[in-house]
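Design review, sub-item: ligand-bound model
Attendees: FS, YL, KQ
YL presented the inputs for the calcium ion complex:
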Amino acid sequence: MTNAMKLKSTLFATLFAGASTVAMAQGVEFATVDTDGDGMLSMDEIKTLLPDVPDDQLVAADANGDGMLDESEYQVLTGG
Ligand SMILES: [Ca+2]
Ligand SMILES: [Ca+2]
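KQ shared the predicted structure:
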């Protein structure tokens, strides 16, 4: 392996590590997270599929403070 190739693979590893949480959240559909299909995401449902999302982000995304995320609140959480 050349030095240039080593540098490239190190750079890619760094980029992927930095982006992993956001990329993962963005890649999961609302319907996938809503495991009981009631149209709302409980904090338990979110934590099962997205265990790396910090609590403060979940609280911030819950715009109406009902302890659940609807589809529009989930879009805010995932930046969609
Ligand atoms: Ca649900
Ligand atoms: Ca809510």
